[in-house]
Amino acid sequence: MMASRGTSAVLSRAARMRQKLQSALEASALEIEDVSYQHAGHAAVKDNANETHFNVKVVSPKFEGQNVVKRHRMVYDLLSDELNLGLHAISIVAKTPKESGL
């Protein structure tokens, strides 16, 4: 019982992002790739280059009728806590199930 409480308290940023996006967007496909290593030494990434830059690909029916800017805003809004806690950049591909062929 204690082990499960401990592991859930220390989720990686990618795992927290996955939970937030999957839950809110009801994603039929969701890929989150940590590419922070590509930005080590970048001026905005001073000390810790871990979990600062991600590529996100998400397929959601919630994107129906939304333009690209609105889709990206939805993702940014869902991840606002992470952005305030050290997430520096997200590359987003946001499609509807129809657009993705799912």
Automatic annotation (TrEMBL):
It holds the Pfam family BolA. SUPFAM superfamilies: BolA-like. Keywords: Chloroplast, Plastid, Transit peptide. The keyword Transit peptide applies. This is Uncharacterized protein. Belongs to the BolA/IbaG family. It comes from Urochloa decumbens. GO terms for cellular component: chloroplast. It comes from the Eukaryota. It is found in: Plastid, Chloroplast.
